[in-house]
Design a protein that fits this description.
With 285 residues, the chain is of the alpha+beta class. The protein folds into 2 domains: 169 residues, Jelly Rolls; 103 residues, Homeodomain-like (Arc Repressor Mutant, subunit A, Orthogonal Bundle), CATH 1.10.10. The protein has 10 helices and 14 strands.
């Protein structure tokens, strides 16, 4: 039985000039932050409305500090990164990408610049060092040119197919047909370009989908079936084997959220909430 959906938030991490958390299962009210915000979808795509405009779909979005916006997680999960507007990297992003605009949407998915296993572990484990590594990869890609660790168009297409296909329908045979490669060639090329076997990458997708369903209120059994596992035991086994954490441990972790200060000079974070006329009604510090 699915319980009423409520916002899911991971631990909130605070470093010097940057903070971050994972977010899902919510449509926010109009609000702004005193920081630059980078929203990275780690699963499919999200919706966002900026400065009273229309809802649009994004995979990644950079928002200037104090830009009024609403976020619809759109049945997906986002990594929210907040940057002190006075930091050097924020200045580079404003000069290089934002220019005179309040928002910038990169054309390519930032997931292509992040090791997949790091991204999966970052949401499952309360590990500040690992999450900071992921964030630094993202900031490095945005603030300065670098080559992604994979460049083959067929493998990029395979990843996109994995991201948008219902996980219960994903097989290596289906994937090979979509990218016009034999199964053996797909296995070899995917491992060469991505660094992990395609089977394991698909399994990450199934686990990620199941975790998202649990975030949204589904039981472990419901989430397992929806993600394409044979039963809850199969999901439990794969989660433990691949990430060393059980579904029950993940649920306990997500129910005991903390604000983790990882630096002696943490970001001074402030959020303003607005009414329909875009007048401030509450400020949270």
């Amino acid at each position: 039985m699915k319980v009423p959906s409520k916002p899911y938030r991971s631990n909130f991490y605070l470093w010097n000039g940057v903070s971050a958390m994972f977010f899902s299962s919510c449509v926010t009210v109009p609000h702004s932050h005193n920081t630059m915000q980078i929203i990275v979808d780690i699963q499919d795509a999200f919706k966002c409305k900026v400065n009273g405009g229309e809802w649009k779909i994004y995979r990644c979005l950079i928002l200037r500090e104090n830009a009024i916006h609403q976020l619809d997680t759109n049945d997906s999960v986002q990594l929210l990164i907040y940057l002190d507007a006075d930091t050097a990297v924020a200045g580079i992003l404003k000069e290089k990408l934002l220019l005179e605009s309040d928002l910038y949407a990169p054309e390519s998915s930032l997931r292509s610049f992040i090791q997949p296993e790091d991204l999966q572990r970052a949401i499952l484990e309360p590990n500040p060092e690992l999450l900071l590594k992921v964030i630094n990869n993202i900031l490095g890609m945005l603030a300065g040119p670098q080559d992604p660790y994979r460049t083959d168009d067929r493998i990029a297409k395979a990843e996109e197919i994995i991201a948008i296909t219902p996980p219960g329908q994903l097989t290596i045979k289906y994937l090979s047909e979509q990218v016009f490669l034999s199964e053996s060639r797909l296995r070899a090329l995917f491992k060469e370009k991505v660094g992990v076997p395609v089977y394991k990458y698909i399994m990450w997708r199934k686990i990620r989908y199941a975790i998202n369903q649990i975030m949204a209120g589904s039981s472990v059994l419901e989430a397992a079936i929806q993600a394409g596992f044979t039963d809850a035991s199969h999901f439990h086994k794969m989660l433990v084997n691949m990430f060393g954490i059980s579904p029950s441990q993940f649920i306990r972790n997500s129910q005991n959220l903390n604000i983790l200060t990882c630096d002696k000079s943490p970001l001074k974070f402030e959020t303003s909430v607005y009414d329909q006329d875009r007048q401030v009604i509450q400020v949270y510090k």
